[in-house]
Specification:
116 residues, mainly beta, 4-stranded antiparallel sheet, 11 strands, binds FE2/S2 (inorganic) cluster
């Protein structure tokens, strides 16, 4: 396995249609779980005005920013809606692997600290 991945907890630690945060020296990363149980990791920073995406509403594989309703695709970070669209703004995404019910995150190559 790629040694750049770190264990950040179990899939059960993340509420359905909710999120948990992982802080690294470079970014705060929101770990989302969809209704179907899929896990995604994106930067907790809306590309519009830096709203906290972790506090947004998860629907399908997307999250709606709590500030001005920009919709972000959790899989590729693409924004849709005001200021977004196919050629619009996007959010950083981070690789995730699930192994034996545990979430492994690749937060670039830096050590990280679980904060919530
Ligand atoms: S800060 Fe997210 S839509 Fe404005």
């Amino acid at each position: 396995m790629d040694t750049d991945f770190i264990d950040i907890g179990t899939v059960e630690d993340v509420p359905v249609r909710g999120s948990r945060l992982v802080k690294t020296p470079d970014a705060t990363i929101a770990i989302f779980k969809t209704m179907e149980g899929q896990i995604f990791a994106i930067e907790d920073k809306c590309p519009h005005l830096s709203g906290p995406l972790s506090q947004g509403i998860v629907h399908g594989n997307r999250v709606t920013c709590p500030l001005h309703n920009l919709v972000i695709d959790l899989a590729n970070g693409q924004a849709d809606g005001p200021g977004g669209g196919p050629n619009g703004k996007c959010v950083k995404t981070f690789p995730i692997e699930i192994m034996d019910g545990r979430i492994l995150l690749k937060p670039f190559d830096v050590p990280s600290e679980k904060v919530a």
